[in-house]
Amino acid sequence: MKFKYKQNLKNYAHINQTLKELTTEIQINSNPEILWKVITDFKNYYQWNPIIQKIIGEPLIGNELEIHLRTVGGKNRVYHPKVIKITPNHELRWKGTFFFSQLFSGERIFLIEKLSENNVNFVNKEIFSGIGVRFTTQKMEDDILASFKKMNDALKKNIEQSLKKI
């Protein structure tokens, strides 16, 4: 009888969902080194990034950042995540929490995948976790994804236009 009860609980695991991943990708005519330089040059985000308008801090593991952003839907937010992973020319991650990680946290991930000598795939994603994930709305997810896409497009335009000038 206990086994059957546990089996039935498995069938309802989706109700307890506490993890959500939102991902966008874009191909950019660039090499990984140039793209890496742009996404880690926090002081100059304001020049090209319509979403993340300002980042205060340095891209070093353990550093706390102050991130000012405005979503496509007009939401202004300030976050204070910590840089948790840096793999030069490949991956940058920061993670922030709301009160404590079991309630709600977000891990932002920028991945650079080399496709050829001068072509990369840029992955822009966030993994949300905690019980607060259950209360996210489709409208919020759509706003985040639209914001990621707008940032991706601006990044591509910025890099490809600057390479044309060289």
Explain what the structure shows.
With 166 residues, this protein is α+β, with helices and mostly antiparallel strands. The protein has a domain at 19-41 and 86-164: START domain (Alpha-D-Glucose-1,6-Bisphosphate, Chain A, domain 4, 2-Layer Sandwich), CATH 3.30.530.20. The protein is built from four helices and eight strands. The strands form two sheets. The chain has a five-stranded antiparallel sheet, with helices on one face. The longest helix has 27 residues, at 138-164.
Number of helices: 4
Number of strands: 8
Element-by-element helix/strand order: HEHHEEEEEEEH
**Residues in β-strands, percent:** 35-45%
The main β sheet shows up as: 5 strands, antiparallel
Structural classification: alpha+beta
What's this entry about, in short?
With 166 residues, this protein is an alpha+beta fold. The chain contains 4 helices and 8 strands; from the N terminus they run αβααβββββββα.
Question: Which key features would you list for this structure?
Answer:
8 strands; 166 residues; alpha+beta; 4 helices; 30% helix; single chain
What's the topology here?
Layout: H1 2-11, E1 19-28, H2 32-39, H3 45-48, E2 52-56, E3 66-70, E4 76-79, E5 82-87, E6 91-97, E7 105-116, E8 119-129, H4 138-164
Antiparallel strand pairs: 1-8, 2-3, 3-4, 5-6, 6-7, 7-8
